[in-house]
Amino acid sequence: MQKAQIRQWDDGSGLKWLYLDMNSFFASCEQQADPCLRGRPLIVVPVDSEYTCAIAASQEAKRLGIKTGTQVKIAKQICPDLKVVQARPDEYVRIHHRILEEVDHVIPVEKICSIDEVACRLMGPETVEAAARALGHRIQRRILSNIGECLTASIGLAPSRMLAKTAADMQKPLGMTVLRRDQLPGPLLDIDIGDFPGIGPATKARLFRAGISDPRQLWHLSPSRMRQLWGGIGGDQFWYALRGVDPPEIETERGSISHSHVLAVELRPVEAARAVARRLTAKCGSRLRRMGYKCGGLHLSIRGTQEGRAQAERLFMATADSFRMLEAADALWDVCVRTLNQTSIKKVSVTCMRLVPADTAPDLFGYSPAADEDPRHMRLLEAIDALNQRFGKDRISIGPKPKLHEFVGAKIAFNRVPETPEFWE
């Protein structure tokens, strides 16, 4: 009976994944929040500056050629009536969680791929194309009805997660694309090879140099040739994913925590920028303690307004003591400023390296990482963390508080959604 059911559900499509990709997510959130922005060209920016770049563009802006990465000054030249909105990461994360709830009402979320992309595994009768399409339409309708009419999603259905992500990008906005195993590579032959996940500008350029310029040529490469072109196992994984077979997941351990900030004009003098470096270091310390880690080193990088970048790092005994970390940050700052030899700083980045769990037990030989923490410091820092989480970020700060963007350090990276407590650190 079980085998008969499996054959009944096998329609030749091989579908295993439903991939949801929100369309122009940050811009759509802003249009949903403010009806006056709907139907208008809009970009979302990290800071209020003519020289920063868009981190999102509405569908209307994209039709004019304005996209993510376009400088504000250039975007305004293209469209003088362009609306420019400063990013509100906490609002985007809040809506992200609402989207997860709506998806979960239809099908469990297998993996959160980014703040605006999730993957769901299809099982049993869900793998039949008609049933999978019905699930996708239900998700689209629920988001539009229960969260907002501006929040459109495109759906991709395919045998591998990589192909499902590719499919989700093929029809926007509010599209649905099915890539069946029994029709491959047909539907893929009309897209640009740079549209495949995992083929960024550097890989695309490498493929071009090897004479690979379209999906048909890519499809006919052998696994060994792909491994050679990718420079490792990533080539083998891409070969299988392209044919609808998911490569095994590779689990990685967290090795670092980092925060960076592009400085507004008034924060670019060296002393003002130094305060930003200290604030980012303190935020790293707060995040270490919340996540139950200690770090064994600090890396500082600064970029000048002119060409040039300086970086330095210092290793030390494992700690989550912000006062110890700030001492290291001050020393690294002096080194970087001397090396850069500029009076104006454009970007500051701080990274905590060599993370170890705070409760790391001794190994078989009795060794555990030596820690450098003053018990008085740790009690004070725990109290500061608790007060800031309860009453708001920076109610209590270590040293003078720089005039920073409200969400400094709570950056939404492509593959990482900030946790809610980060907005209060």
UniProtKB/TrEMBL annotation:
<dbReference type="InterPro" id="IPR043128">
    <property type="entry name" value="Rev_trsase/Diguanyl_cyclase"/>
</dbReference>
<dbReference type="GO" id="GO:0005829">
    <property type="term" value="C:cytosol"/>
</dbReference>
<comment type="subunit">
    <text>Monomer.</text>
</comment>
<keyword id="KW-0239">DNA-directed DNA polymerase</keyword>
<dbReference type="GO" id="GO:0009432">
    <property type="term" value="P:SOS response"/>
</dbReference>
<dbReference type="GO" id="GO:0006281">
    <property type="term" value="P:DNA repair"/>
</dbReference>
<dbReference type="InterPro" id="IPR001126">
    <property type="entry name" value="UmuC"/>
</dbReference>
<dbReference type="InterPro" id="IPR043502">
    <property type="entry name" value="DNA/RNA_pol_sf"/>
</dbReference>
<feature type="domain" description="UmuC">
    <location>
        <begin position="17"/>
        <end position="200"/>
    </location>
</feature>
<dbReference type="Pfam" id="PF11799">
    <property type="entry name" value="IMS_C"/>
</dbReference>
<dbReference type="Pfam" id="PF00817">
    <property type="entry name" value="IMS"/>
</dbReference>
<protein>
    <recommendedName>
        <fullName>DNA-directed DNA polymerase</fullName>
        <ecNumber>2.7.7.7</ecNumber>
    </recommendedName>
</protein>
<dbReference type="GO" id="GO:0003684">
    <property type="term" value="F:damaged DNA binding"/>
</dbReference>
<dbReference type="InterPro" id="IPR050116">
    <property type="entry name" value="DNA_polymerase-Y"/>
</dbReference>
<dbReference type="GO" id="GO:0003887">
    <property type="term" value="F:DNA-directed DNA polymerase activity"/>
</dbReference>
<dbReference type="GO" id="GO:0042276">
    <property type="term" value="P:error-prone translesion synthesis"/>
</dbReference>
<dbReference type="InterPro" id="IPR017961">
    <property type="entry name" value="DNA_pol_Y-fam_little_finger"/>
</dbReference>
<comment type="similarity">
    <text>Belongs to the DNA polymerase type-Y family.</text>
</comment>
<comment type="function">
    <text>Poorly processive, error-prone DNA polymerase involved in untargeted mutagenesis. Copies undamaged DNA at stalled replication forks, which arise in vivo from mismatched or misaligned primer ends. These misaligned primers can be extended by PolIV. Exhibits no 3'-5' exonuclease (proofreading) activity. May be involved in translesional synthesis, in conjunction with the beta clamp from PolIII.</text>
</comment>
<keyword id="KW-0548">Nucleotidyltransferase</keyword>
<keyword id="KW-0808">Transferase</keyword>
